Amino acid sequence: MRGIHIGASAIAGGRDIAIGFAVTTIVVLAGATLWPHTGVAGTINAPKCDPLAATSCSNQPISASISLSRSPSGELVLQTRSDALGRFQIYDLTPGRYCLFAVGDGGFQGMTCFEVTSGQVTAVHLVLAMPSMRICLAATDRIATPAGAVLITQVRPGMMVWTRDASGRRVAAPVLAVTHTPAAAGQQILRLALSDGRVVEASSGHPTVTGRRVGDLAPGDLLDGSRVSTIEELAYAGATWDLLPAGPSGSYWANDVLLRSTLGGSAEQRPQQ
User: Fold this and answer.
1) First to last CA, the chain
2) Beta pairing partners, 113
3) DSSP of 113-135, one letter per residue?
4) Closest-CA residue to 61 (of 80, 36, 33, 42)
5) Beta bridge partners of 220
6) Backbone region of residue 250 per phi and psi (left: phi > 0; alpha: psi in -120 to 50; beta: other values)
7) pTM score above 0.85
8) Largest Cα–Cα distance in the chain?
9) Series of mean pLDDT values for 10-residue runs along the chain (273 residues)
10) Do the Cβ atoms of 125 and 268 come closer than 8 Å?
11) Residue 149 CB partners (closer than 8 Å, separation 6+)
């Protein structure tokens, strides 16, 4: 009987140890899951049709190679890849400013910069474009904001810019994404002068709010309520830029000329707990 009692005690003790180990494991795993991360997570998308051949395009998730650096030309921090649904996550980052450059299957590219805050995950939903589309603005263009005109190179996600709501009213909205792409060799940009004195520089494929491309305009055509006086082709070097404001129209004013973003409407960037 004593042997049986000892055996039962040993079994009970082993069971208690196993239960204790299981509870400890659950607590550790739960702590790892609930403990606030510091990093970035989001999705990568690309147009499912050629925006030069259609006035509207929807975006779809895309698998892309992702490079993370401290600045657009800074030292590489790490590389990863989004999955088939365009999802990615990068945790355990040191707080600070980062830039994410993505290259998707088929040659789509895009970049955006953002801040990483301790204990938070910054959500970045990036829309890629084809560099060969040449659909962006010159670096010298200035974007209209409630605080005054700002060079497009200085626009950052989260900044407030002027856009139009669904009824066409001028409203302030935050910037969801900013991208820029190195100009191709021999690339040219168009300089459009309007009869009221406004001047804007954009690549030929950049869309207007009516759906026409800048390159389709001719002297005498209307652009944002004024007639086009002259159109010049200029050699261009550096990077071309674009931004996406929140709201249904995707429109903004560059050098006080109303244009439409090429980035669609599925990008956002915001800190999360």
Assistant:
1) 59
2) 99
3) EEEE-TT-EEEEEEE-B-GGG--
4) 42
5) none
6) left
7) no
8) 108
9) 48 50 42 68 78 55 91 81 95 91 81 86 81 73 97 91 92 84 78 97 89 90 96 89 84 96 51 37
10) yes
11) 142, 143, 255, 256
